[in-house]
Amino acid sequence: MNLYELSTPALVVDLDILERNLDRMAKLCREQGVGLRPHAKTHKTPEVARMQVGRGALGLTVAKVGEAEVMGEAGLDEILVAYPVMGSEKLSRLAALARERRVLVSLDSEITAQELSRASTLAGATIGVLVEFDSGYKRCGLEPGPRCAELAAKIEKLPGLKFRGLMTYFGSVWGTADERRAEAKRVTEPVARALEALAAARIPVEIVSGGSTPSAEFAGQIPGLTEIRPGTYVYNDLNTFYQGACNLEDCAVRVVTTLVSTAVPGHAIVDAGSKTLSSDRLSSGPATGFGRIVEAPDAPLVKLNEEHGHLDVTRSLHSFRVGETLTIIPNHVCTCVNMHDEVFLIRNGEVVGSWRIAARGKIR
Ligand SMILES: Cc1ncc(COP(=O)(O)O)c(C=O)c1O
Fold first, then answer.
1. CB of 191 closer than 6 A to ligand 1?
2. If you measure from the C-alpha of residue 40 to the centroid of ligand 1, how many angstroms do you get, rounded to a whole number?
3. What pTM was estimated for this model as a whole?
């Protein structure tokens, strides 16, 4: 079956592009001398995680305990939950998983460490801990400096935990290549400050985890970094493209959609709305629209209802007809993938299989 014959809306991944993206990042990390612990929030699919580990990834990153469980059940190991997990139900599930698999958690407060320690001890497990510091994104993370060392020292004393190092998210590395390069240079300073504080307290640091897709190419220039956690690179999306961090040909995922109405002049309606694409706006480049129509890039996807996508066709050279199939590159592939139960696999335009997106919707 051809991809244009799929029942729509449908999520498809081009396997040649996916494999190329995986190979490229594995090579980039090897060349820069940093480890790769890819973030599985983008694909949420054990089959892709296995391809990453098969190419040398030293483990996986997730944001949710539910994602960690899915990956653990699928046989994946050395899983970092890069999120300060709170709540006894989630912590006891995490501790149960830590009996079967090597699990790490990043956190930035003593109370989170104490709760984690309690759950881990109760389960008879050991959980690795990374202290999160803020390198400029201002979301989570301690000020890099003595407070990181103080928390690490407390973690070292807590039963059921093993302090393994530091973690930060380079979310501030965003924008054009020049902006990203300058910010990647700036973050070397907070990374150095966090490391100095740990060294001054004589606390050994095994892991320094940072990174993301837009900062990946600069990882080797950040002294002390031992690994990076890019997620989006597996599929890429318009946000990555408009930062110049990938080409359109590197976008592996598309949403296949059917044009269902041209009744209103100047408009064309497709069967992909916010429940198919997610309503995430573009946050790079022109910062407008909800995705790129590959067959008619001159028809912006200007508005989404739940099940309707509105194309502005007033300036398009494409002649739109009801029933035609179009494909869309999403703005933000991670939230788009999370909308779907399955992804169809494409090779040379033909559908060759499908994967269940086993960790989709795992928000706890
Ligand atoms: C903690 C953390 N690490 C890594 C990533 C991966 O970033 P990207 O998807 O840009 O590669 C994210 C993305 O949100 C994140 O929140």
1. no
2. 9
3. 0.97
pLDDT digits (tens, 9 = 90+) for 155-202: 999 999 999 999 999 999 999 999 999 999 999 999 999 999 999 999
Q: Is 39 in the pocket of ligand 1 (CB under 6 A)?
A: yes
Residue 34 and residue 182 in one domain: yes
Ligand 1 touching residue 284 (CB < 6 A):
no
Same domain, 226 and 252: no
Q: Is the domain of 230 the same as that of 271?
A: no
Distance from the CA of 6 to the center of ligand 1, in angstroms? 31
In this structure, what token pair is assigned to residue 255? 């949403």
Q: Are residues 224 and 248 in the same domain?
A: no
pLDDT of residue 287: 81
Answer yes or no: is the C-beta of 232 below 6 A from any ligand 1 atom.
yes
Q: Same domain for 76 and 164? A: yes
203 inside domain? yes
Strand, coil or helix: 270 = strand
Q: What are phi and psi of 182, to 5 degrees?
A: -65, -40
Whether residue 251 sits in one domain with residue 150: no
Categorize the per-residue pLDDT at 275 as very low, low, confident or very high, splitting at 50, 70 and 90.
very high
Is 213 a pocket residue for ligand 1 (Cβ < 6 Å)?
yes
Count of domains for the chain: 2
3-state secondary structure of 337: helix
231-252 tens-digit pLDDT: 999 999 999 999 999 999 999 9
Taking alpha carbons only, the member of 62, 61, 60, 64 closest to residue 87 is 64
The CA radius of gyration of the chain, in Å to the nearest whole number, is 22
Range of the structural domain that residue 280 is part of: 3-10+244-356
Distance 5 CA to ligand 1 centre (A): 34
**CATH (domain of 51):** 3.20.20.10
Residue 327 in contact with ligand 1 by CB distance below 6 A:
no
Determine the Cα–Cα distance for residues 55 and 17; give it in Å rounded to an integer: 15
Q: Are strands 10-14 and 342-347 parallel, antiparallel or unpaired?
A: parallel
Cα pseudo-dihedral 80, 213, 355, 337, rounded to 10:
100
- Residue 362 lies inside a defined structural domain of this protein: no
Which of 181, 208, 235 lies at the terminal end of a domain, its last residue? 235
Q: At what angle do helices 88-100 and 65-73 cross, to 10 degrees?
A: 20
